[in-house]
Design goal:
Number of helices: 8
Oligomer: single chain
Radius of gyration: 16 Å
Bound molecules: glycine
Distance between the termini: 31 Å
Shape: globular
Strand content: 5-15%
Order of helices and strands: EEHHHHHHHEEH
Number of strands: 4
Structural class: mainly alpha
Largest sheet: 2 strands, antiparallel
Length: 228
Amino acid sequence: MVDASVGGKTGIDHPCGKNLIGAFHQPIGVLIDPDVLLTLPRREIVGGLAECIKHDIIRDERHFEQLPGIIEKALVAAVDALAELVAHNVRIKARVVEADPLEKGERAHLNLGHTFGHAFEKVSSFTYSHGEAVSLGIMAASHMARELKLLNDQQANAIRDVLEVAGLPVDGLTLDVDECVQAMIYDKKVIGRRIRFVLPDGIGRAMIRDDVPEQLVRDAIASLKGEG
Ligand code: GLY
């Protein structure tokens, strides 16, 4: 509801990686019924929250500041809170994809956490749900952004805190770093073996970097191992 419903990005998985085959194809309409969310297991709701957190990190600092309280309400399955959250996220997503339907530019910001996340899904044989993998991917991107002085400690801690409030994983990765890096090379967002990372540039903004040293990528993945 908060992500794939808007923007017409379709994709199927391939043994080489997630969503590797697909097309942009806009629907004639989208019907969203928030009551359906009440039928989902909690893990699915929590997974969806990763995309909501992503949207505010890249586009809405003010809403990001209120997110912990909003998420707490959403997690007790308050349908009004869920409906508001869905509407807020559809507005953000629609604005981005209207401006750049074919991902020639700013739409790529929506991939925050996904280059890492798709690799974690693949290497874990999809033991991580998409949202859980994206949460860890956002943590890895946030580590890189802090090292590159795009985020300060307070902002990086706020990202970690809101993911934790949602019940999403922020550490404890047991996957092999080499395997993850290898899987990232096959991500569809890689152009000419240069991995393009979406990094938070403060809260509410994002930027794309394709010049991140490999050692920093490895450090970012390694920073997810263990606790804290
Ligand atoms: N899920 C990211 C996008 O639609 O571009």
